[in-house]
Write a structure and sequence with these properties.
The protein is α/β, with parallel strands linked by helices. Helices cover 37% and strands 14% of the residues. The protein has 3 domains: 4-182 and 217-396, no CATH class; 187-215, no CATH class; 420-594, Glucose Oxidase, domain 1, CATH 3.50.30. The radius of gyration is 24 Å and the shape is globular. The chain starts with a helix and ends in an 11-residue tail after the last helix.
């Protein structure tokens, strides 16, 4: 039996989205009825498209077999995307063996929030999602493809690719991950060194040695931040092959899954036997499944922005109340850093997503009756990929957790509700992630200290200015003000204050990293300060209440919201490290609770 709340929220989304969804599906099904795109190109246009195809040139010109368009985020500067260097050749060979062809349709940018944290480049990060969507759209606009495969992993990249895939929703879309790097030093060890460095107890050389031991090879970072939350979503929403998310790079199974993904992209094309356009995969039920997965795994807060934007690209309207209501009935089944000591490799070994999907299905918390790239029904995603004679075959996955310190059954969860909660009150709307926050820290009521950037917070900390309970307010960090950078470099500072026995909370119209956790943080505050939101009226000393139990965010001080709105000099956000190129994005971007989109 489907859980009553899951059913109610799903029906609410369907009703809310009816007009937009119907219009979207009409466009996509109309495009599908026009037939394979290459037939409508002129001979000259086709010749241009095939001229560089080498051994596939004749097949493209004379045969009606499927042609896969590859959208790649390959670069060799970022560990998560470096493995994609080999993927196009693997995909081409697999397509040829199946009687089809494959071409790289285009490359899109991929940036790393971990590299740009605390620098001006971080102010381009959120906007890069929309750039990725547009760049992928340019690649697919040549209209010579029968299906598409998307090579991407990290924070803004997968959401951008999903938005693009839905713009071409009449095409099947298969997402092929690179997998996580093998485990280095524990995330807990790394966090300890970071906190010691923030308090002056560790040298920069010691910090560097620790970081290099953690981030040491090809693949995605192994903590459960936004990148790995993205991979979970692609599996829960049916765009990965079952069990593909957390297989390490450059292994025989990883390569075999890439081959299988290419073969499946041909099989589900308009020319194959099982036509499955992405517009039929990413429906309202798929998005609800993704949100449930987000809660059950204690995933990244960034997805409260990205999932809203992704859904809107397919005519589906989500709001933060949907997330909050689903969190109330979704148990937390995983403890992966920063919500525990394990990394994603340990999680995968304990039973991983296949075990978790099976548990949530048995608990009535997921829609089983969905379309996926693997075929109808989410139950396919309870199976494990295994390598046999060089090819992938799927076998029944584990029905018992292999480590109950990392992964638990639905009847014995780590906590009865999900890790994310909506906050509302006199300061507006916000979200908080509490899966790693100890219960005694779920409510903080304390005087505010107000800042306009994270560097000022760190300077105040170094000067010893935080000596009592405090709600740190960091404003003018929203999408319109400066692109809504993550404020991840505040995490060690706030964690140190809390470790000293102070009650500490953060309130910001910016973002925190998908890896944030220990300190109560009310983030994505809407309306943002630059839009005249209540957060722009707060002064030092105002009493702020952040209550994750009852979902409250308010200012207690009488008359605080009767003051004029504070303004800030944001001219420093306009230039340097590419920021001048994104002025139009800052002017046109929407609010965080509608997806912070500029397209």
């Amino acid at each position: 039996m489907l859980n009553e709340t899951v059913a109610r929220v799903t029906n609410r989304i369907i009703e809310r989205s009816a007009a937009g969804r119907q219009a979207y599906l009409g466009r996509m099904h109309g495009a599908a009825e026009a037939g394979p795109a290459r037939a409508h190109l002129s001979c000259s246009g086709q010749a241009h498209a095939y001229a560089g195809a080498g051994p596939d040139q004749n097949a493209l010109a004379t045969q009606s077999s499927g042609n896969i368009g590859i959208i790649t985020t390959y670069n060799d500067m970022l560990s998560a995307h470096q493995p994609f260097e080999r993927f196009p050749e693997i995909i081409r060979d697999a397509a040829r063996a199946a009687g089809g062809t494959a071409q790289v349709a285009g490359g899109v940018p991929a940036m790393c929030d971990g590299v740009t944290q605390g620098t001006p480049g971080m102010e381009l990060s959120l906007f890069s999602r929309d750039i990725i969507a547009m760049a992928a759209g340019v690649g697919l606009s040549h209209n010579t493809f029968d299906s598409a495969v998307f090579l991407g992993v990290c924070d803004k990249i997968v959401p951008g690719l999903v938005i693009a895939a839905q713009a071409f929703g009449h095409l099947p879309a298969v997402f092929l991950p690179a997998g996580p790097m093998t485990s280095g030093i524990s995330n807990d060890e790394k966090a300890v060194v970071r906190q010691k460095f923030a308090s002056g107890e560790a040298t920069r050389e010691e910090l560097m040695a620790s970081e290099m031991a953690a981030y040491h090879g090809p693949g995605t970072c192994t903590f459960y931040g936004t990148a790995n939350t993205n991979q979970m979503l692609m599996e829960f929403m049916g765009l990965h092959l079952p069990g593909a998310s957390f297989v390490n790079p450059n292994t025989p199974l990883r390569d075999a899954l890439t081959v299988a993904g290419a073969q499946r992209a041909l099989a589900i094309s308009h020319l194959g036997d099982s036509y499955t356009p992405v517009c039929d995969v990413l429906d309202e039920k798929a998005y609800v499944n993704g949100i449930v997965g987000l809660h059950a795994t204690g995933g990244s807060t960034n997805l409260l922005i990205h999932l809203v934007a992704m859904a809107r690209a397919g005519g589906i309207i989500l709001d933060w109340q949907d997330f909050s209501d689903l969190a109330e009935v979704t148990p937390l089944l995983a403890r992966v850093y920063p919500n525990g000591l394990a990394d994603v490799n340990h999680f995968h070994a304990a039973g991983g997503l296949g075990y978790m999907i099976g548990q949530l299905l048995s608990g009535g918390l997921l829609h089983e009756d969905v379309k996926t790239i693997a075929g109808d029904g989410l139950a396919r995603y309870t199976r494990d990929p295994k390598l046999k004679d060089g090819a992938v075959e799927w076998v029944d996955g584990p029905t018992e957790t292999l480590n109950d310190k990392i992964l638990r059954p639905v009847g014995d969860p780590f906590q009865p509700t999900g890790g994310l909660k909506r906050l509302s009150g006199s300061l507006g709307n916000a979200v908080t992630k509490v899966s790693a926050v100890k219960p005694e820290h779920h409510i903080v009521e304390a005087p505010a200290r107000v800042f306009h950037d994270q560097e000022s917070v760190k300077e105040a900390y170094k000067k010893g200015e935080f000596t009592s309970d405090v709600v740190v307010v960091v404003r003018f960090q929203g999408p319109k003000a400066n692109g809504m950078p993550e404020l991840h470099s505040l995490t060690p500072v706030l964690a140190n204050l809390q470790a000293k026995g102070l009650k500490v909370a953060l309130v910001t119209d910016g973002r925190m990293s998908g890896a944030s956790g220990k300190v109560l943080s009310a983030i994505h505050v809407c309306p943002e300060a630059l839009d005249g939101g209540p957060i722009a009226r707060i002064q030092d000393g105002d009493i702020i209440r952040v209550d994750a139990r009852d979902g409250v965010l308010e200012v207690i001080t009488p008359g605080a919201l009767d003051r004029p709105v504070t303004t800030a000099d944001l001219s420093g956000n306009e230039y340097g490290q590419g920021r001048e190129l994104f002025a139009n994005f800052r002017r046109t971007v929407g609010a965080a609770d509608t997806g912070a989109s500029s397209i």
